[in-house]
């Protein structure tokens, strides 16, 4: 899990340890993501399965893609498909994924890169491994997050952000035991490169064995921690958390995550995604590739897609891909 690392974590800017009197966020739940398949058949873990949407708001959906070691000829992606009403965030830890959309955006997403696509009023896109990766196979691991848009921005102009690994803000915990990669939002006065319509914070943290991270967190944000690899605990109560599990926190000022002192050899550190945002608190009508506020808006989205108003597949695209 290379993502992006620092030669010497001790020279990075430090996130100060919160005041001991700061309100600790209690862990409301820990759930285990079931496994499934997406697109043309690549394995995923449904990170938000079984969690009340009100606790996730402004997030809608998150898949951990892989971790899987593909043999030559096995790598898979998604065919062309539409989106409307939200943003997709794709973060690659291992492997290479090629993105292309009907607005002309696209490019390669590789180790530590993030592709941030605002679907807004409507877009078509495809995500698939490049031909050379299909031929040779290899390790594939990443995640995709769906961030909701408020009603006033549902039909905003689509846009594409290509956030390279070298642009991510690298920080260290106060004791140097945790490397923080801030992708979007602000934490303790430090800002990530991602530009968001909905106020959120998103970071990838790597905790060395035995390390504890007490992270200041905006009071008006919700708070979620998802374990990508390794084992540890969350909250002052030290509730166990392992790979493929999501912790939902309650109100407060501080998120606490700790890594077990002993880790497995294949996952020597605890890697977690930490995310939260300002709840939108609007009705959600979601079906397939669309996230709207009402059933009528969903029906309109399907009608607009069928009529070609969400964009057209570029002529140079590979033939034979169905849109759904």
TrEMBL record:
Domain Pirin N-terminal residues, every copy: 43-147
The family this protein is said to belong to: Belongs to the pirin family.
Pfam families in the record: Pirin, Pirin_C
Protein name from the UniProt record: Pirin family protein
Native source species: Tenggerimyces flavus
InterPro entries tied to this protein: Pirin, Pirin_C_dom, Pirin_N_dom, RmlC-like_jellyroll, RmlC_Cupin_sf
Domain Pirin C-terminal per the UniProt entry, residue ranges: 203-310
Lineage: Bacteria, Bacillati, Actinomycetota, Actinomycetes, Propionibacteriales
Domain of life: Bacteria
